[in-house]
Write a structure and sequence with these properties.
Layout lengths: L9 H20 L2 E2 L8 E3 L5 E3 L6 E2 L19 H4 L8 H16 L9 H12 L27 H5 L5 H10 L10 H4 L10 H6 L4
Antiparallel strand pairs: 1-4, 2-3
Helix pairs in contact: 1-3, 3-6
């Protein structure tokens, strides 16, 4: 991103995002949560082959999902449920991070660059609107000690503008859902129509697990 002055073309973004999703899907299929997905932990070869790195916070998970610490994922890429103290998270925690990375590749800067946990939640709420139990039923189970600041939803287009087409927005919004159970799994995201025009060579190099 720095080499390209933070302006990546749509074909390059698709190529990188597809490979990122393939790596995440591979981990999730083997019951591994990365828990620290961010641009600094993604490595590229000169021919744009993407690899996941830094599994220092990775953990195996099973069913039922056991309690984890909520002090995971670099702040800017941390899911709102984790910020609010959810300790029984699973694969959706990585999908939120992927969505933040996706948006960052599009706009050339972090989507939610919070300075602390409260500021991070406020930035998310200002863009996506303060969540309610209607759109996120399990939110009522979280033991978050503070009253939530109330903001109407501006929507992703407020931050991203016309840099994504309708299908791109759809995919991004399916990743950045408040309700973890509604976030699109990595394997399903790889089959999203937004990737229809991705060259077959790239798809074959990063096959769906």
């Amino acid at each position: 991103m720095e080499m390209n002055h933070y302006r990546l073309t749509t074909p390059v973004i698709k190529q990188l995002l597809y490979q990122l999703l393939a790596g995440v899907a591979y981990c999730h299929q083997r019951r591994v949560l990365h828990r620290d997905l961010k641009p600094q932990n993604l490595f590229l070869t000169r021919d744009l082959k993407l690899k996941l790195g830094d599994f220092g916070l990775a953990r195996a998970f099973g069913i039922p999902v056991r309690s984890f610490t909520h002090e995971v994922v670099t702040l800017w890429y941390r899911a709102p449920d984790v910020l609010m103290g959810n300790r029984k998270y699973s694969t959706p925690v990585d999908i939120w991070s992927v969505g933040c990375i996706f948006a960052e590749m599009v706009i050339g800067r972090p989507l939610f660059p919070g300075s602390n946990e409260q500021d991070q939640l406020t930035r998310i709420f200002k863009l996506l609107g303060t969540p309610t139990t209607e759109i996120w039923p399990s939110m009522a189970e979280l033991q978050y000690p503070h009253a939530l600041p109330q903001f109407p939803a501006r929507g992703l287009r407020y931050a991203i503008g016309e840099l994504l087409d309708a299908q791109g927005y759809e995919l991004l919004s399916e990743m950045l859902q408040y309700d973890p159970s509604r976030r699109i799994p990595a394997k399903d995201a790889m089959q999203h129509p937004w990737f229809t025009d991705l060259p077959e060579a790239i798809k074959k190099a990063s096959p769906i697990p």
